Amino acid sequence: MKKISILLIITIGLFACNKPENQQKEIDASAHLEKSVDSVLVLMTLDEKIGQLNLLTSDWDVTGPTMRSDYEDLIRNGQLGNIFNAFTVAYVRKLQKIAVEETRLKIPILFGYDVIHGHKTIFPIPLGESASWDLKAIENAARVSAIEAAASGINWTFAPMVDIARDPRWGRIMEGAGEDTYLGSEIAKARVKGFQGDDLSDPLTVMACAKHFAAYGAAQAGRDYHTVDISEITLRNVYLPPFKAAVQAGVGSFMNSFNELNGIPATANHLLLKKILRQEWGFTGIVVTDYTSINEMVPHGYAVDEKHAGEMAFNAGTEMDLQGSVYHTYMKVLLAENKINIEDIDMAVKNILRKKFELGLFDNPYKYLDEEREKKLIYAPEHLEAARDMARKSMVLLKNEKQLLPLGENIKKVALIGPLAGTKKEVLGAWRAAGDDNKTTSLLEALQQKNNIKVDYVKGCEIVGNDKSGFNNAVKAAKSADVVILALGESADMSGEAASRADISLPGVQTDLLKEIVKTGTPIVLVLMNGRPLVITEESELANAIIEAWFAGTMAGPAIVDVLWGDYTPSGKLTATFPRSIGQIPIFYNMKNTGRPMNEGKYTSKYLDEKNEALYPFGYGLSYTSFEYKNLQLSESQWSDSLIVSVELSNTGNFDGEEVVQLYLHQKVGSITRPVRELKAFKKIMLKKGETQTLKFKLTANDLMFYNAKLEYIAEDGNYEVFVGGNSMADLKADFIFKSASK
Ligand code: BGC
């Protein structure tokens, strides 16, 4: 035995010597890191260890029920290693000082915050950002958010939210990248990279957190926190890939989801946390609960009491307790009763300490705390410019009858109408973080700053409620204007957490207001501000042009004006389907065919009173110019190694513009039924008017892989179709046969 281990050591030693210099450096750094972590762990008492597993909110900015306010004493006693909702250099310094100057071991605190789409400078809501399909811009938005958050003393963000959402009733659809797994995975990587940069110890980066693990977006009936019951095949093929992508991008932490998954709350779910996250994906970062999600296993009916819940959560691999105080209260006794073991506690503490080392907090616990930097970076002009650019890129042109947009010099008088036209608050969205209304430029303000137009502003009605007393003035303004810009939508708190809606049409009397204005005959540009796909079937007939502007953030106003007057040609494409009616939900592009696909006959899969098609499908969005796709060609008709798909794209309209070229695959017959098509690649490209380019995509067996009924990840031999075009209904198509090389 001894001989074998000596041999092993020599072999490892030799192997290590032969490694390229960089790899060797990495191995040395990681060994050094582990040694540092162990050197702290060995000094810790059990109470101090449990303290590191505790994360509590400051009483400053609460995102849920606060469970305690005596956190300063807890820090002092080494019982609280992590805090969230505390920011500004002055405040964080005060708390960090207690940790590193008044505690026995001087272990620095992690400061977390929900920096979801900006810290002070607010970017568009993540669903909006995803509609840009611009990974560089999305990464940059996360980068800027990290810079401002870090300058404010924060070193950990509870983002990105990478939940796939196929139900627009679910309010949290606004926090993610929409309904598609491939796009969601690419965006997950971009956001993690943006937040964390290349080096966590850089004081302008923050640790990211992939949430909510897992399948939170599959809540039954779109009701928040509701039950999730899906097959493991669907879990692995649809919901997990963005999380895996986040791990591959080096994300530092994971957050549990509130939901149960097939009968077991995610917080105590061995399959998710032990088998998939740790064993299959090799994740070594922190796993934190969602807000009191351990405690919630009692009402779930999965734990007898909180102590029991703590035992199950911890044994499943949940390491840090966010706001539940369950580990704080029961961990010691659970250990004494041998319900949990010290090795697992040590492992959990090590995972947390390691991140504190990687963030550089042990070298300098005040490294994020520099008042000058804070002053300089918060709302820096280049951040506002980035937010404006991201906002323009997020907007989706849904309709443009008779090329009403862009507005030209003939427009002298504008009637700006609607409950969202003047707002500085709603446009920041539900996760406004530390964003400030007063720093926001509303659509009204941006229009007033525009030269050579006269703006007549009338609110017309509120977002909710039945009051129509403002209609008359709105109609009067519309009558005497060259164009009406009508800003309708939701309030910010109608999406986000605990904000599911059973009716996702425009609330209140907003549609009635639109109908009254239509009667004036003045052309109407409908600007929508909302946090989810809406059912706007009627409105889509009535308005002459429609821009989906989402909640576009601090620079919403100028960005919308840029798009309306063509200083920016819209290029956004929807990342979540807009249904025609609520009864169609769930509706998403990559569904299955069924044995009775819809046709004229009665006994086929359809509604008696509604079409099957979406109002606006996934991937859809217009431009001021037009694009033509032709000449779809494949390098092989049968392949095993790789395939080149090429297509010719021409800008056939009158403007330079960008197009998101999308490639979808369909496996015609599989060992399990396969979606009608799935996004596998895309490119966003700028073409001058009149320009034509040939685009090439390379496909490999990787692009065909999925989990089969035995949960094997495989690519199957057989016939496939490839579609390329400007949305998920693209009909330019070619066929190929795939035959794996091994056969
Ligand atoms: C949300 C999380 C968030 C946490 C902390 C919870 O209610 O579900 O997404 O990170 O609160 O604010």
Structural write-up:
The protein is of the alpha/beta class and 743 residues long. Among the domains are: 392-584, 3-Layer(aba) Sandwich (Rossmann fold); 627-738, Sandwich (Immunoglobulin-like). 31% of the residues lie in helices and 18% in strands. The chain has 21 helices and 26 strands. It has a six-stranded mixed β-sheet with strand order 11-16-15-14-12-13. Helix 20 (537-542) links the parallel strand 15 and strand 16. Helix 2 crosses helix 14 (342-358). The two termini are 42 Å apart. The relative contact order is 0.10.
Short description:
With 743 residues, the chain is α/β, with parallel strands linked by helices.
Q: Which hetero compounds are present in the coordinates?
A: beta-D-glucopyranose
Q: Could you say which overall geometry the principal axes of the C-alpha atoms support? A: globular
CATH class category of the domain at 392-584: Alpha Beta
Going by helix content, strand content and strand pairing, the class is alpha/beta
For the largest sheet, list the strands in their spatial order.
11-16-15-14-12-13
The percentage of residues in β strands lies in: 15-25%
- Quickly count the helices: 21
Tell me the total number of β-strands.
Answer: 26
Biggest sheet: strands, sense, closure?
6 strands, mixed
Euclidean distance between termini CA atoms:
42 Å
Helix content: 25-40%
CATH 2nd-level architecture of the domain at 392-584: 3-Layer(aba) Sandwich
Annotated CATH topology of the domain at 392-584? Rossmann fold
Mean pLDDT: 95
Radius of gyration: 27 Å
